[in-house]
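Structure first, sequence second, as always.
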């Protein structure tokens, strides 16, 4: 199996995991009803937790978008090429972060 096949499988696996995570976050990010008798402090904690979950949800959606973009791009000649500097992205980076379209230097 060559590197592209490994990356393709990794992308598919990450897409599945990320979609599951998005579904979980969406469930956890439901509005907090003002009728919930959970107490003022507990209610504030719930609101803070909800904002943390919403941030995680945004990140997961962005990751999914990037993964799907890389999935579409994997058979194209510019796959594995940094979209900023045009240099090859190291295979280890692609194996760790298959959604990455930037090399390490450009990602900083």
């Amino acid at each position: 199996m060559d590197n592209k096949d490994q990356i393709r499988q990794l992308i598919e696996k990450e897409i599945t995991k990320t979609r599951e995570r998005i579904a979980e976050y969406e469930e956890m990010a439901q509005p907090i009803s003002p009728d919930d008798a959970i107490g003022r402090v507990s209610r504030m904690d719930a609101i803070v937790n909800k904002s943390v979950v919403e941030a995680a949800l945004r990140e997961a959606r962005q990751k999914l978008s990037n993964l799907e973009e890389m999935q579409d791009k994997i058979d194209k000649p510019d796959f594995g090429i940094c979209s900023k500097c045009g240099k090859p992205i190291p295979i280890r980076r692609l194996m760790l972060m298959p959604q990455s379209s930037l090399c390490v230097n450009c990602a900083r």
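Margin note: The longest helix spans residues 40-73.
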